[in-house]
Design a protein that fits this description.
The protein contains 15 helices and 18 strands. It is of the alpha/beta class. A 7-stranded mixed β-sheet has the order 2-3-4-1-5-6-7, sandwiched between helices. The chain has a 6-stranded mixed β-sheet with strand order 9-10-8-11-12-13, sandwiched between helices. The structure holds guanosine-5'-diphosphate (GDP) (2 copies). InterPro entries: AAA+_ATPase (IPR003593), G_ENGA (IPR031166), GTP-bd (IPR006073), GTPase_Der (IPR016484), KH_dom-like (IPR032859), KH_dom-like_a/b (IPR015946), P-loop_NTPase (IPR027417), Small_GTP-bd (IPR005225).
Length: about 450
């Protein structure tokens, strides 16, 4: 689970600036779901080794009725969903009554909240920030979001304890991963049966995600209905998905249900039926992400954002275009050509045209889910990776750079889920993107890898 940080504060204190700085390293991918979540912006953040989800809330104006008003509603929801709240104030503007109102709300919430005084560049920070201690939320952290000053220290201070609390076994897991990777190191050696067995015995975690009303619940019910599995009533907050174990053709899965199959009658559940945080956490926790879109709506920017999140997280992807029933041939053709155009960047993902309502095509989804999982977790020997590299190089040699030919010398695996291949050679950092893409596609074809992204890492030297 990734920790969630919410940025709150008055307009103009620098929330967007901090948001952009934090998400920058991952292509600033932002899921903006207007209308659903009222301007909350969600980003995957990877900053100085810290990974988390960051939510920008647009701003609480803090006037007496403002804090309770519709305008502030999105901030209040973001605070509720977050593990940590960074409450930004403007060190140049000084303390305002709006800041006081926000602080009072945060104190009542008993959330882990930190006061962050922004814009300390070019001023005497200690003097300017002293008055914010009156907010009675403890230490006042000084940053200049525009310049990145103090940001790493802030994350270290606020996130380290949360991470330790959330993932106590993380270190042990990392060691396990190392052990799994060891099997790659001996060139051409037989795979370690025991280790491989251990991995393939695990159930496939399949997250079913998509915008509201695309048919996620209908699909989940259809899958479960056909398999007659027992759904255990699992407690959870609005942030948690329901995890449903199931068996199909003797293979085990855990469905990560973001829609809430057991739609409860309570009003609050209906309101929070769609939660971006829930969706992002589900993607993060899954092996394979089944992204459901509505054929009648086409691919929206929100769909692309979700796909982007899955891709950035390195997850396997299967696309389900739902509500394929009752469309005439002309419309179907038009939808298909639009999909080809907009989904070119995930050409490795299988696309299924289904009707969750009638059950058409639903069974075949699992063929692609299995294929994607098997591709993502498959072990490939060093000898094989090297042979494919040599073949690719022989078919189409790397270009000359500065009069010298780039030379690929050696390849080995660097991980799985998604598969990572490491290629060593001379001047590899000068390889043009077109050649990198060529190599990637060559590996994909040679190893028949479908459904999962592939990462190739280049290292200078032997
Ligand atoms: P938001 O409304 O809270 O999202 O605020 P913005 O991020 O849009 O920032 C408001 C203004 O403050 C912009 O003009 C920023 O350039 C400026 N700003 C943000 N961070 C800093 C900073 O660290 N130092 C200075 N001097 N200005 C900043
Ligand atoms: P969710 O919000 O993504 O969980 O979507 P639901 O499963 O609640 O479905 C939203 C609406 O779309 C409901 O009225 C469903 O009956 C309808 N729906 C779902 N799947 C299909 C389908 O395959 N074909 C058609 N025509 N309607 C569907």
């Amino acid at each position: 689970m990734l920790p969630v940080i919410a940025l709150v504060g008055r307009p103009n204190v620098g929330k967007s600036t901090l948001f952009n700085r934090l998400t920058r390293t991952r292509d600033a991918l932002v899921a903006d779901f207007p209308g659903l979540t009222r301007d909350r912006k969600y980003g995957q953040a990877k900053y100085e080794g810290y990974e988390f989800i960051v939510v920008d809330t647009g701003g609480i104006d803090g006037s007496e009725e403002g804090i309770e008003s519709e305008m502030a509603q999105q901030s209040l929801l973001a605070i509720e969903e977050a593990d940590v709240v960074l409450f930004l104030v403007d060190a140049r503007a000084g303390l305002t009554s709006a800041d006081q109102a926000i602080a009072e709300h945060l104190r009542k919430q008993q959330k882990k909240s930190f006061v962050v005084a922004n814009k300390i560049d070019g001023i005497d920070a200690d003097i300017a920030t002293a008055e914010f201690y009156q907010l009675a939320l403890g230490e006042v952290h000084q940053i200049a979001a525009a310049h990145g000053r103090g940001v790493t220290q802030l994350l270290e201070y606020t996130l380290t304890p949360i991470l330790a609390e959330m993932n106590p076994q993380q270190e042990a897991l990392d060691e396990d991963d190392e052990a799994l990777l060891d099997i790659y190191d001996d060139e051409g050696k037989e795979l370690d049966e025991e280790v491989v067995q251990d991995f393939s015995d695990k159930p496939i975690k399949l997250a079913i995600v998509g915008r509201p009303n695309v048919g996620k619940s209908t699909l989940t019910n259809r899958i479960l209905g056909e398999e007659r599995v027992i759904v255990y009533d699992m407690p959870g907050t609005t942030r948690d998905s329901i995890y449903i174990p199931m068996t199909r053709n003797e293979r085990e899965y855990i469905l990560i249900d973001t829609a809430g199959v057991r739609k409860r009658k309570k009003v609050s559940d209906v309101v929070e039926k769609f939660s971006v945080i829930k969706t992002l956490q589900a993607i993060e926790d899954a092996n394979v992400v089944l992204i459901v879109v509505d054929a009648r709506e086409g691919i929206s920017d929100q769909d692309l954002s979700l796909i982007g999140f899955a891709l950035n997280a390195g997850r396997s992807i299967v696309m389900a275009v739902n509500k394929w029933d009752g469309l005439d041939e002309y419309v179907k053709e038009r939808i298909k050509s639009e999909l080809d155009r907009r989904l070119g960047f995930i050409d490795f993902a299988r696309i299924h045209f289904i009707s969750a309502l009638h059950g058409t095509g639903v069974g075949h989804l699992f063929e692609s889910v299995d294929e994607a999982y098997d591709s993502a977790t498959r072990r490939v020997s060093t000898a094989m990776l090297r042979r494919i590299m040599d073949m690719a190089q022989a078919d189409h040699q790397p270009p000359l750079v500065g009069g010298r030919r780039v030379k690929l010398k050696y390849a080995h695996a660097g991980g799985y889920n998604p598969p990572r291949f490491v290629i060593h050679g001379n001047q590899v950092h000068d390889l043009p993107d077109s050649y990198k893409r060529y190599l990637m596609n060559y590996y994909r074809k040679a190893l028949n890898i479908m459904g999962t992204p592939i990462k190739i890492e280049f290292r200078e030297g032997d």
